[in-house]
Amino acid sequence: MQDLSFQHYLLGLFAVANNIPAIPLYLKLIDGLTVKDQHKLCFVATIASFITMVVSMVTGMGVLSFFDISVDAFRIAGGLLLLGTGFSMMDAVKKSIDAAEEMTLSKKISTAIVPIAIPLTTGAGTMSTIILFSQDIQHFHFIGLKLFLAIITMTLIIYFSFRYAPKLVGLLGQTGMDVLTKIFGLITLAIGVQFILSGIAGAFPKLAM
Fold first, then answer.
1. What integer pLDDT is reported at residue 115 of this predicted model?
2. Does residue 1 form part of some domain?
3. Which distant-in-sequence residues (6+ apart) come within 8 Å of 187 by Cβ?
4. How many domains does the chain have?
C-alpha cells in the first residue's frame, strides 16, 4: 500500500462517514427536546460513530486474518458494499421515525446510536473503508497516526454537523441537502469502483499488466 496523505484519508472518510443522510432523521428525533437534551443526543451519536471508526481501525485486519480473508478479496467486497451505499445516497431517500415525539429520552438516545450513528453515519461502507486504509499500520505506524487524526477530524465534523443541523438545513434547504447527499454518493461510488479495481489488480496481477 502506498503512503497516503492525511487529506486522502480525511476525504475518503468524509465521503463515506458523513452524516448528511442521517440529518433528517436526527432533526425529527430532537424535535421538542430541550437544548440540553439535544446536545446529549448529539454527543451520543457522535461518540458512537467515533467508537465504530476506531474499532474498525484497530481490529479490522485481525478479523480478516482470523477468517483467512485476503485484503484483495475484502477490497472487492468493500467496493461492492460502497457501490450499494453510493447508489442509496444518489437516490436521496428520505427516512423518518414514526411518532418520534412520543419516544422517551432513553429510547431517543438508543435511536441516536442505531440507526442514526450506525449505520446512517458510520455503516458497513465506512468500516470497510477504514479497514482497507489500515491494512499496513502494523508495518508503517505513521499510517495509523494519520488515519487516527483523520478519524478525530471526521468525528469533529460529525459532531458539528449534528449540533448545527437545524441551521444547516435552514441554510441549504431540502433541495440543497439532497444535492449534497448525491454529491457524496457520487464520491462514494468512485471510491467503491477504485477499491474493486485495486482488488482485481491484486488478485489477478496479469490483468493489470
1. 85
2. no
3. 11, 15, 86
4. 1
